[in-house]
């Protein structure tokens, strides 16, 4: 296999794109990634998307992407629920590593707002076990509420102890022109937020939104001839766990994140102490805590302590959600994994503006599908 | 890159599986492929599927597959409309070729019957252009009717001239215990069949059905240590064309099949004369004719002549649909591409029973997504 690098990035703002169709979102992010890579065509486009068939009535997004972008490239959609973006990157990584393809566009896109509210919640539930969880009326907010409740019960935390996950994300989102929410929030606002499914409040949850993000992959050996600031993919690793929460030995341990992060550390030859920042999957505050623990940054039940201690801020020991995370940048589900990568590349290029982590060299991104069944970790390095 | 071989195959019967859930279909095909390969685990499972989110309310099929099969493997869904099965194989091929993964299960599955009739037709239409074709009320039967009408007008053929595509498929399906339709039909029955969308009649169209098919991939260099009769993937090639028919320069030329087959011939270093049989995508009789022409087996407008001359039968120059094809074996859309591969492997192992092509050495399979936007060709060889 060959080493693989990222030579171009592109993104649309994350917002409610009521007047922009899914093809235009793909075009905007895709073309800006190609321009950034100084290329006009690729060999393949792998589209990360979860819901276009259900929400937009448009399957076959791969064909639509290359058609509308005018590319001469093979193209498929890759789906792993909310981890679809990282899964598309993973397929692109395999394709370039194989030596069969040289230039690949990994493109994540989701349109979630242009449908009725009920439908969005219902189709998102398809990421859980339809026959054993969803048939009982579960939604993703409810699944996360169960996890958060259990976590608080088991380890003695209060709802308020999670506030800093949301506060930090919003503080970082305030400096990201592509974030859905660009205003900071206070711990008091967090505490006052309406409860959606107890104990999950409005400010524990990432928003329904639209967006697209894309990266161009190339063999590392000649990445620099195309872009002066390439970023190397040091690790690409997938972990899996049972689809339904009740089938997991320990619902509070994200086994798939353990597997995926351990594989990634091994592949990159690094440890948690080497990671300068961590774009984790804070779809809900409880997921941020569990992701930190499973990836080795905190002990079991202690993820919340990192937030309380301010260790997750840009100045902390483990900066997370550096451009706002899922909470403030937004969580257009199938695109999220690639937003994380785009933001990590910005950090590693030193282009993260007010949110720049000084001397960032190694960044990690982790994308979660379902309530933790598919978890994909990538480690990136400036070179 | 490394050469890639198929070391195991599995399939469920194609039928209306009203009492079997999608997880059980995956299990049945997947486990029989693993058994055939003499292995108990794989490194990855790539699931080809189009409609599970829409029809079954179950996305995240990759996670469900490895969970229910008890595998320790990474897993995603790959979607390219009706070419999803071949797309999943393509991703598996890239993964093994890369050297990063050794054993991969490519698994196609579709459940289409357990929903209302209207819904099936509506969700299948999502393979076309939602904004420019489907918004005008088009369905897949209607799209193929437009193509068939134009073909007849342009080249002077009559409806009856297409009969042998259906007659041959049913004759072959009669000997396939996994086929949906295991009874032969006559040209008279074809002529009498009710018209669905003129000129497409009931016997021009493949049926709505359920099924799963799977293959295990391994590096060719040690394939024989696992299975005594491996089959090498000599070529894996994708071609693309505009998503909407009205955007194609020539609607009667499957440009994506031209691109895909030419790439495949080049990769394998073979020509049409070397191909012993061709598992083509006869979702409609017109698609069989266009596939033969675009892949170089007949000149433009002459595909139907091959059928009239009997050249597409098991004894003919270009045997197609050797186990019944999409018409008689059935077309569970996301699984079809892998049924084609399973059947090609049976031929190359000499295990195709009454339908065996004598001395079959090189087989080609071609899977079409949409009305021709994504076309994937694989060439397989016994070794």
Can you put this structure into words, describing what you see?
- The structure is a homodimer of 383-residue chains.
- Chain A has 383 residues and is an alpha/beta fold.
- Chain A contains 14 helices and 11 strands.
- The first copy, chain A, has helices at 22-36, 52-56, 61-69, 84-98, 117-124, 140-155, 163-173, 187-192, 223-226, 255-268, 285-294, 303-308, 325-328, 333-349, and strands at residues 4-11, 44-48, 74-79, 104-110, 195-197, 200-201, 211-219, 231-240, 277-279, 362-369, 374-382.
- A 9-stranded mixed beta sheet of chain A has the order 3-2-4-7-1-8-11-10-9, sandwiched between helices. A two-stranded antiparallel ribbon of chain A has the order 5-6.
- The radius of gyration of chain A is 19 Å and the shape is globular.
- At the A-B interface, helix 2, helix 3, strand 3, helix 4 and strand 8 of A face helix 2, helix 3, strand 3, helix 4 and strand 8 of B.
- Strand 3 of chain A pairs antiparallel with strand 3 of chain B, so a sheet runs across the interface.
**Quaternary assembly:** homodimer
Order of helices and strands of chain A: EHEHHEHEHHHHEEEHEHEHHHHEE
Enumerate the strands of the largest sheet of chain A in spatial order, edge to edge or round the barrel: 3-2-4-7-1-8-11-10-9
Q: What Rg of chain A, in angstroms, do the CA atoms define?
A: 19 Å
What is the general shape of chain A?
Answer: globular
Count the beta strands of chain A: 11
Tally of DSSP helical segments of chain A:
14
